[in-house]
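We close this part of the discussion by returning to an individual protein. The sequence in question and its structure tokens are set out directly beneath this paragraph:
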Amino acid sequence: MNRSGIFLSLALTLFSTQLWALGGDLVNNGGGIAEKNILYAYEKIDTYVVLCLKSTACKLDDQQKTILQQIYNGLSQEKQVNAQSPQIIFDSEKKNPGTFMIDGNVRVAKTGSTIGSPIYINVDLLYSKNDSGGYDAVTLPEAVAILVHEFGHHYGNYTHEALDLIGVRVSLLMQQKLIMTPMLPWDSNISASVYNPNFGNSFPQVLLNIGKDVIDVSIAFANEVHCEVFTVPIPILPIPDLELITKTPSSSLFYNIHWDGVKDKGDHLEVQIMGNVSNNCEYKNDVFLRNNNYQLTISFNIKKVNGQYLYDPTSLSMNQFKNPWWKLIRLP
């Protein structure tokens, strides 16, 4: 079985009745990390859909591309119809038996057949128990696959199988461009995700997953990255070079992401994420060059409140820097 087939099998398993072993404390009618991933995917769905439409790597046939194009063309109308009320509604098959029973199977979501129809999400199927005894939430790519499927019902009498496969195609391409790194292995309670759409004309989406929250720090990242124009080198670490003149890059990549440090301060954690940055810098004669010398840190605090971790938005800081080979002197 090829990679697409394996992923499709996993996706269809998600849509089955096998993920019912959830305690009530994990499902909070829109309050958990899986629900937040669904809502974030809804807000950014146009970004993920158009990438698939423009990329041959998405491997859509003509009919699939036509359906996905219909979905993309209708997204603005979908959200206009729902400007006064949410289009995404969370419900539970356990609490309301029969709500998500379709064609003899319990589904992860359902919707109507017209543009703007509400999309109901079955919270019972958003978390699955892992080998360590914890629960894994539906990821952002999986959330996108679910929503593409449901939006597809608004544009024609398409089969569940056909829409499943289109959702999986979009999700697979997302996974190729998405970097996910948990602070602890096999634990998604605290993690970071970076989505790099294209190098030539975009900046990454940078997300922090803290407890039940998804925090988008993409704007802070875009404001921090820069191209050097005039720099006075300082050959001593850790003193940074004096960057006297900088320019804003036209796009950027953020990759090789890892957790660089975690300090327990009693009532909160001080954490830092580090990764490499490639900025697309425009120089003379409109020649675009990749600057691969830079690294970037993201630092923030996580508060401990009633045994749960909460992100402290006032603590966020980012720093782009470089440590070139010629910095030979290091201060103690």
